[in-house]
Specification:
The chain is 36% helix and 26% strand. The chain is α/β, with parallel strands linked by helices.
């Protein structure tokens, strides 16, 4: 299981930890013992999104940020958990080397011209987020 570093204010951290473990198992990254995933719950994210993920497979870490508010409104707990599922798909992509760094290479091919929602890494995350949430939460 990747090592989880959970920070920020979120209710029921034990439940979030169990959910993280279930997501890791479902995504097939549960045996990556040497990897670290930082999950931080923040009041607002700089770009007003609900979640962000960045990782480095070579260094063996992923950083996930989940917003508690967007557009001045509180984000419901369940929505934050679905966002975590979405970002965990990206964590899997980074840890397995499918998605890499700032250049946004997808499986070895640069994809900087792709639109955000049609990018292959986002299509996979959007396709899986609800299924993962329903199965693991």
């Amino acid at each position: 299981m990747p090592y989880l570093v959970l920070s920020g204010q979120i209710k029921n951290k034990k439940e979030v930890t169990k959910y993280f473990h279930a997501l890791s198992k479902e995504l097939g990254i549960n045996r990556m013992w040497s990897k670290v995933i930082f999950v931080k719950f923040e009041t607002v994210l700089d770009d007003e999104s609900q979640g962000l993920c960045w990782g480095d497979s070579g260094a063996g870490f992923v950083s996930i940020q989940i917003a508690r508010k967007s557009d001045g409104e509180k984000i419901p707990y369940e929505t934050m958990m679905q966002t975590l599922a979405h970002e965990m798909v990206h964590a899997k992509q980074y840890l397995r080397g499918e998605l890499s760094g700032y250049s946004l290479e997808w499986k070895g091919k640069e994809c900087t011209d792709d639109q955000y929602k049609t990018a292959p890494w986002e299509q996979e995350a959007y396709e899986l987020e609800k299924k993962l949430y329903d199965k693991c939460f």
